[in-house]
TrEMBL record:
<dbReference type="InterPro" id="IPR001992">
    <property type="entry name" value="T2SS_GspF/T4SS_PilC_CS"/>
</dbReference>
<dbReference type="InterPro" id="IPR018076">
    <property type="entry name" value="T2SS_GspF_dom"/>
</dbReference>
<feature type="transmembrane region" description="Helical">
    <location>
        <begin position="162"/>
        <end position="185"/>
    </location>
</feature>
<feature type="domain" description="Type II secretion system protein GspF">
    <location>
        <begin position="64"/>
        <end position="186"/>
    </location>
</feature>
<keyword id="KW-1133">Transmembrane helix</keyword>
<keyword id="KW-0472">Membrane</keyword>
<dbReference type="Pfam" id="PF00482">
    <property type="entry name" value="T2SSF"/>
</dbReference>
<comment type="similarity">
    <text>Belongs to the GSP F family.</text>
</comment>
<keyword id="KW-0813">Transport</keyword>
<keyword id="KW-0997">Cell inner membrane</keyword>
<dbReference type="InterPro" id="IPR042094">
    <property type="entry name" value="T2SS_GspF_sf"/>
</dbReference>
<protein>
    <submittedName>
        <fullName>Protein transport protein HofC</fullName>
    </submittedName>
</protein>
<keyword id="KW-0812">Transmembrane</keyword>
<feature type="transmembrane region" description="Helical">
    <location>
        <begin position="205"/>
        <end position="234"/>
    </location>
</feature>
<dbReference type="InterPro" id="IPR003004">
    <property type="entry name" value="GspF/PilC"/>
</dbReference>
<feature type="domain" description="Type II secretion system protein GspF">
    <location>
        <begin position="268"/>
        <end position="388"/>
    </location>
</feature>
<keyword id="KW-1003">Cell membrane</keyword>
Length: 400
């Protein structure tokens, strides 16, 4: 995909009529040659920008499901791709689907055509499409793959939502507290300095805390700016990604969600490949290629190496230390009984349902808890600001 460029062209066909469209090619010369092969005489050829957001998984998964439906309806693969290209609203997808159809008409296999677009179609797609081509069940493999991708995306969104909500509430709370510390408390503090009566302990403590926050504001801002500048460099750094994943897995609240999501992804892909007739080691390689986290890739690579050296699947997974006892027990049962695909499917469903329940439960608990914490913090600040006024009124009443 990195070598492909999107070109907008206009030209004359053999009958002299003006035609226009988009095409994918490595460079301008290759694009011109491609148009000549289609018996077109190009007049203009301009490079167009590519919208990376259109390559996200939800777009490709919807197309895969649609393609499987067309194949079951009796259309050939090139016909289905051409029909999808005519109906798709995004022009760069239209060009890509037509490019794939042309590759198939030239004798190339579907999996080989998809392999030229790694940023659009992940390795799992290639393995499943290749299996469908070998078994003659391409439509069934496409349906299974689309269902798996949709389920994993929904689970990922639910986990992210459960983890994002506390961050939003805490950020808003911090913003309110800072606004009161910098804008409201100084005004009240200046007024109270004119009083000759001692301030309550709560008010003195809040004012002292506000002074500390104000004194530490500059160092904190410097650290925040340095962290913001370093984040783009660390985001793709393998060492940082490993450390972050270990930190998340050891967290008491976030850890079970992160682990459950990863295990659901691993066992779902393994179950999908097993039911499609792909060997376990090849399916494990597909899982490794679909994972973006270096830590989990290394865990599965070690398991793959131990299985290759003769260890059982359950022993290799147990040695990694990241799979709970239930996983090891069910995998061992599947190895002994010869029903490994069913056990993997049960594990995938179990971890998916468990993670969804944990995400829903976490959201249900955190919503009222964070509201209570936020109310207490803001309430303490308000009471601390107005408490001296009440004490002053009592003092004046006693003096009268």
């Amino acid at each position: 995909m990195a070598s492909k460029q999107l070109w907008q062209w206009s030209g004359l066909d053999e009958s002299g009529e003006l035609q226009s469209g988009l095409c994918w090619s490595e460079n301008r010369t290759a694009a011109m040659l491609q148009l000549y092969q289609q018996r077109l005489h190009p007049l203009t050829l301009k490079r167009r920008p590519v919208r990376r957001a259109l390559w996200q998984a939800e777009h490709s998964t919807a197309l895969l499901n649609q393609l499987a439906t067309l194949l079951q309806a009796g259309l050939t693969l090139p016909e289905g791709l051409q029909l999808m290209a005519e109906q798709h609203p995004a022009r760069q997808w239209q060009a890509l689907l037509r490019h794939l159809a042309q590759s198939l008409e030239q004798g190339e296999t579907f999996s080989a055509a998809l392999q030229q677009w790694p940023e659009v179609f992940p390795p799992l797609w290639l393995a499943m499409i290749r299996t469908g081509e070998l078994t003659g069940k391409l439509d069934e493999c496409c349906f299974k793959l689309a269902s798996q991708q949709k389920a994993q995306r929904e689970l990922s969104l639910k986990v992210k939502k459960a983890l994002r909500y506390p961050l939003i509430i805490l950020s808003l709370t911090a913003a309110v507290v800072l606004a009161m510390v910098y804008l409201v408390l100084p005004e009240f503090s200046a007024i109270y300095q004119t009083f000759n009566t001692p301030l309550p302990a709560l008010t003195r403590g809040v004012i002292a805390g506000a002074n500390i926050v104000q004194q530490c504001a500059l160092p904190f801002m410097v650290c925040a700016l340095l962290a913001s500048a370093a984040f783009p460099l660390l985001r793709n750094h393998a060492g940082w990604l490993r450390y972050r994943q270990r930190l998340l897995l050891t967290s008491p609240i976030i850890g079970p969600l992160v682990r459950g999501q990863r295990l659901s992804q691993v066992f779902t892909v393994l179950s999908l490949t097993q039911r499609s007739g792909i060997a376990f080691l090849q399916g494990l390689e597909s899982v490794i290629e679909t994972l973006t986290c270096p830590y989990w890739r290394e865990v599965l690579q070690r398991a793959h190496r131990e299985i290759t050296e003769g260890a059982s699947i359950s022993a290799a997974l147990k040695e990694s230390g990241e799979f709970p006892s239930l996983c090891i027990q069910l995998v061992r049962t599947g190895e002994v009984s010869g029903a490994l695909d069913s056990m993997l499917d049960n594990l995938a469903q179990h971890h998916s349902e468990q993670t969804q329940r944990q995400a829903d439960g976490l959201a249900a608990v955190l919503e009222p808890l964070l509201l209570v914490v936020t109310g207490i913090i803001i309430g303490v600040l308000v009471v601390a600001m107005y408490l001296p006024i009440f004490h002053l009124g009592d003092a004046m009443g006693g003096a009268g």
